[in-house]
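BUG: 3D viewer hangs when loading the predicted structure for this chain

Environment: internal workstation, default settings.
Expected: structure renders.
Actual: progress bar stalls at 90%.

Input used:
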Amino acid sequence: MIHFCHMKICPAGRLLHKGFLLATILFPGMNYAAAEPGLLPRSQKVIHTTDRLLPEERTRIACIGNSVTYGIGVAGRDTCAYPAVLQCMLGEQYTVGNFGRSGATLLKKGFRPYYRTEEFISALSFRPDIAIIHLGLNDTDPRAWPDFNDEFIGDYLWLIDTLRSVGAKEFYIAKLSPIFNGHRRFKAGTRDWYWQIQERIEEVARLSGATLIDFYTPLKNRPDLLPDNLHPDKRGAELLAKTVFSALSGDYGGLQLPEAWSDGMVLQYDRKIRLRGTADRNETVQVCITGKSYSDVASATGEWEVSLDPLKAGGPYELVAMTAKDTVIIRDILAGEVWLCSGQSNMEWPTGLSAGWEGMHESVSDGNLRIINFRRRQLGWDVPWDSLTLAQINNLEYLKEGRWMAVSAETVEEFSAVAYYFGRKLREELRVPVGLIEMTVGGSPAEAWIERKTLELHPQLVDLLYDYRKSEFREPWVRDVMTATLQLTDNPRQRHPFEPAYLFEAGIARLAGFPIRGFIWYQGESNANFSELYQVMLPELVKNWRACWADSTLPFYFAQLSSLNRPSWPEFRDVQRRLASRIPYSGMVVTTDVGHPTDVHPRDKKSVGDRFAFLALKETYRKDSFRKSPEPFEAVRKGDKVIVSFRDAGKMRTSDGLPVREIEVSLSGELYEPASATIHGDTIIIASAGAVSVRYGWKPFSEGNLTGESGLPVPTFKLKIH
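C-alpha cells produced before the viewer hung:
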C-alpha cells in the first residue's frame, strides 16, 4: 500500500527568475519574453516539492515530461501525480520536482517543444542530481513526427547534455507509457509512430549511457487505468512511481521466479530450459539443479536469466535459486512432456462430467501425470457481477493461481476432460512423465486470447478493440453475456473476460516462456458466425503465442468444431480445415462424428482427447503407427467422373459399412445437389460430368460416414474441381 504525503509548493517566482537568467546564458538567441507566454495556458503553474532552501544533503530529482508527468487526469495531482507519489516513497533524503508540461514535444521543431517551456528553465535552475525523462508521446502527432523524426535522437541527446551541464549526474529515460486505440489519432499515424519512437528512445539510452526504464509494461495491460486512452489515473500514476522507485533504489521485491515454477511441476525434458526471473539490482542469482550450478547478475531493471542444461526424463529433481538475501526451493520436479491446453467450454468441460467417467474414476491415479489448472472464477453468465468481482477482473485476477498436482480421481474430476485423455494417452505411449497446463474459459472468443499489440497493429483485427461490448464482430449471445454480467457498472472502461486481449493479459502472459512441447486448442464456437475473420485471426494467435515462447516451431493442434444444428458451422469447419494447411507446424482433430444435434457440449471427450494424442504422436513424436484424419487435397475431373484424393487415408471406408453419405456437387458453383460416390483406395470417385465443385459433410449436424483406414473421420470440406 502506498501512503501519500502532502508536499509543499514553493513560490515559483524566484526559481523562474533564476531560470531565465540561466537560460540567457545557455540559449542567448532565444527571446523568452516574446516566446514563452503564448506557448501554453498560464494556468499550469510550475510545482516543486521543496522548501525555499534546498538542503545540501538532499538528492534532487527532476521529473521531466509532458502531461503524464504533470498529472493530467489524476485527481489531486499535487499529491497523486507520479512525481508526488515518488517523493513519498523515497522520503526526506530526496527532493523530487515535477517539471511536466502538458502537450510538450521532445522535438525542438515540434509544435510545442519542451526546451522552450518555463518548466524546462525551472528544471535547469533546480540543478538536479538525477533526471527522470518521459517525453515523446506528443511527438506522435502529425505536426511533429513526419517532418522532424530524423532529429529525435539528436534532440534527446541535447536535452540530456544540457541537464548534465547544470550538474545532473544520473539519467533515467522512460519508454513511453501506452496510447490505447481509443485515442483520436490512433489509426492516423500515432499507432505506428509510437513504436518508432520507442525504438529511438532505446537508442538514446544506449548512446547516452542513461538507464532505460519502462513506463509501457506496467500499464500496457491496463486500459482501465487510462480513462482517456492517454493519461493514467491515480492508480496508474502509482504504478509509474513504483517503476521509478525500483529503478532508483534497485528494489524489485527480492528474488522471484515465474508463477508456474512451483513444487510438483513438470519441466520439458530434452532441451535447454530458460529460466527468467527478477531480483534486486546487481544481486547475484545462483540456480542449482542436478548437481550443476548456474548464475547471473540481476540487471539495472532487476531481470536475470539462466539457461539450464536439458534434463533427462524422470525425476524427482530439486531446484534451488538463491541470492545473498533470499532462497527459493522447488521440490518434487519431474522432467517429461509438457503441453498447454486452452480454448473455450469444450476444452474446459471437466472429466467428471464426461461420458464413461463413472466406470473408470477409481483407476486414474498416476503420479507421473501431473496437472495445473488456472481456473476461471465460477461466475454466472446471466447474473450481474458485483463490484468486488468487477474490480478483480480489472486487476487481471479472473484466472486464479494454479497449483501442480498428481492425477487422481479427486484432482482430475474438475480438470479438462479433453486434456486429461490426451495426456493419459501420451503417458501410455511415451512412458515418460507428462505435464498438462489448463487455461480455459467457457464462451471465450479467440480475440480475447491474442496480445493487444498484435491486435492494434493488424489492419483488420484492430477494429475488434473498439466498443467491444456492442461490436457487430461478436456473436449475439456473447454480447448478451457481457450485457448481463456488467449491469452493475457505469464504468465505460470496465473490463470483461470476453474483451479482446483480456485473456492473453490475464492468462497467457503469466505462462509465457514456461518450457512446453506445444499447444492443443479447442475453440471456435464463439466465432463461428465470422469464419472470414477467423481465418485471419487464428494464424495471428498462433504466431503471437509462439513468439511468447520464442519458438516459431511449437506444435499447435486444434479441434474442428463438432456437429450441431447451427447453420454457420459447416462453413466454419471448412475454414478450420484450410487453416490446418496454412499454419506451419499445426494440425486438426476432426470431431464431427461425436457431436450432438442440440447440445454444444457433447460428452464424448475421450475420443477427442485420444485424437489429439494420435495427432501429436504422429506429427510431433514421429510414431508412424499412429494415424490422423484423412486430408482432402485435390478434386480432379477425368471424363465424366470426379476423383477426390486424400492424404493420410490408407484404404478408405465408411464407418457403418453403408454407401458414402453427404457427398454433394455443384454445376454452378453455389447450388449443390446430392451425388453418389464410391471408394477406391485413398480416393473417392463421383459420377458427375459437369460438376465444378464438390463438398462433404456440409450440414450443421453432419451424419457423414466417410473415414480413413484407421476409422478416423474425414473432415467437412469443399473443393473446386480442376
